[in-house]
Design goal:
With 155 residues, this protein is mainly α. It has five helices and four strands, in the order ααβααββαβ. A two-stranded antiparallel sheet has the order 1-3. Strands 2-4 form a two-stranded parallel ribbon. Helix 1 packs antiparallel against helix 2 and helix 3 crosses helix 5. It is flat and about 60 Å long.
Length: 155
């Protein structure tokens, strides 16, 4: 039983480390892409591409590790507005690079929710980056958070 508890603790630590490494690297990727567009010198562009390749490898390794070591979700109070605000700042280099405006509209009185903040962050980051990828260049990404069900939807 003690061995199982140690393995579970090691898995939780591994997942936290993979998440804490992978999330900041995603922001680094966006900034590297912006720098590559701003630089004219071919040798510097090549160095930035090499850096980007290594960062991409690290992100992939962190995601793979996170998937293998993911502990059971822990439900804690999460401020969705703050979480989304942080993620939108994280992806801002990519949206700026593509000329995509981000419009945010959050309900006035958003309650905290009981959820796993790491899983929510992964979910929202995936949705946001997929939307930015699908948009191409230009346009507006609308991020809207409301309480309750949309009109006509079942509760």
């Amino acid at each position: 039983m003690g061995r199982n508890e140690r393995l579970a603790a090691a898995g939780e630590l591994a997942a936290a480390m993979a998440h804490n490494v992978g999330t900041p690297l995603t922001g680094v990727v966006g900034h590297l892409q912006l720098l590559e567009e701003e630089v004219a010198e071919p040798a510097v562009k090549e160095r930035l591409r090499r850096i980007q390749g290594q960062v991409d490898r690290a992100v992939a390794a962190a995601r793979q590790f996170l998937g293998a070591a993911r502990p059971a979700p822990l439900r804690t109070p999460v401020d969705v507005k703050a979480l989304l605000g942080d993620l939108l700042l994280l992806v801002s280099p990519e949206s700026e690079r593509k000329g995509i405006a981000v419009a945010q509209r959050f309900a006035e009185e958003l309650p905290t929710i009981a959820a796993d903040p790491n899983q929510l962050q992964e979910l929202f980051l995936g949705l946001i980056t997929n939307a930015l990828d699908a948009m191409g260049a230009g346009g507006t990404l609308h991020v809207v958070v409301e309480t309750g069900c949309p009109t006509g939807a079942a509760p």
